[in-house]
Amino acid sequence: MTIAPEKAFACIDGVVHRPTWYIKPAFVGLACAVATLVVGVLVNPAQAANSRQVERLLETNACPRCDLKNAKLDNAKLKGADLTDADLEGADLSSADLSGAKLEGAKMNGAKLVITNLEKANLREAKLGIMRSRNEDRKDAKQAQEFPADLRYANLKGADLYNAVLTKAQLSGAKLENANLNFANLVDADLLKANLSNANLAVANLVRANLKEAKLNIADLTGANLAAANLTGAELDNAKLGSANLSEAKLNQAYLGNADLNGAVLAEAYLLGTLLPNANLQSANLTDADLSGANLSGASFNRANLTTAGLKNANLTNAKLAIANLSGADLSGANLNYAYLSEANLINANLSGTNLREANLRSANLTGASLVGANLVQCNLISAILKEANLSYTNFSTADLRGADLGDANLSYANLTEADFQGANLAEANLTGANWQEAKLKGVIGLNRYSPSETAAP
């Protein structure tokens, strides 16, 4: 029997449209459902639309505001392409050439850009963060899968990423020399071994970012937020970090030679073995920071807050710490040769075994400080306050202590050879076993109660 075309059943959008006659409706309905499912899988309307726009892009090298979600564009030649405000979420652009491309405002969350060439591309305010799985609007949204943008080893030299969103982006090994990341959001981004030399990261948000072994030479991080960021082994020589927030950041073994950290916040930061020669840390906040074993030679800490900071065995040779707050700081075993500590606050600081040879501590406050076995040979302690300080076995040979206040200080067995104590206060000080040979004692207060047998004075 021949069936007229107009009487044949039809399956449209999952609905069975049947003529007056039909055979086994259940079977037809099932066939329709299966056909709809298969067609839906093979030819998704959105994917089909993307395909047309992909063709347009490849033919004209321009597709602004196009829907290119999940488009497969790996190895595509799109140099200078115009993709302004395009939707490229989840797109695969691996190894593509997008150098000089216009991607301003583009949505690229979850996009694959591995080894992609984006040199000098315009990515201002582009979204290169996380793409979440479709179940994010359901009750199990908290378990939605996240797909961060993948820019590993991408070439972003000179790219403009002003105010771009790169949350959790994978940028390990990426080339970002001379890139503009001003105001960019890089929270939790992975920049392991990335090259950001001379990049502009001023006021960028790098909270918890992984910058381990990254190159940030001459980079501008002024006002950037690097709280809890990992900068272990990073290169930051001559970097600008003025007013940056580095609280709780890890800077162990990092190099910050000549870096500018004026007014930066490094509270509770880790700087073990960090190299900071000639760095500028004036007015910086280093409260509770751990700088044990750090190289701080020639660094400037004038007016810096180093309250309870850990500086054990640190190298502070020729460092400038005028009016710095080092109260409660641990400087035991540190090297402070020729350091400038005029008017510094060292109340209750631990300077045991510290080398302060020829250091300038004029008018410094060392009340209650411990300097057991410290070396203060030729040290300038004019008008310094050393009340109740523990100075036993300390070497003050040829030191200048004119007008210093050593009331109630413990100077037992100290070496005071040729030291100048003129006009100093030694009331109630413990001078048991101290060596006063050739010391200048004119106008000293509080020495008259000691007999020659109690001291080693000549």
Question: How would you concisely characterize the structure shown here?
Answer:
The protein is 7% helix and 3% strand.
SSE blueprint:
Layout: E1 10-12, E2 15-17, H1 25-42, H2 45-60, E3 130-132, E4 146-148
Antiparallel strand pairs: 1-2, 3-4
Keywords: Membrane, Transmembrane, Transmembrane helix
Pfam families: Pentapeptide (PF00805)
Organism: Funiculus sociatus GB2-A5
Explain what you see.
It is a single chain. It contains two helices and four strands. With 458 residues, it is largely without helices or strands. The chain has a two-stranded antiparallel sheet. Strands 3-4 form a two-stranded antiparallel ribbon. A hairpin with a 2-residue loop joins strand 1 and strand 2. The radius of gyration is 35 Å and the shape is rod-shaped. The chain starts with 9 loop residues before the first strand and ends in a 310-residue tail after the last strand.
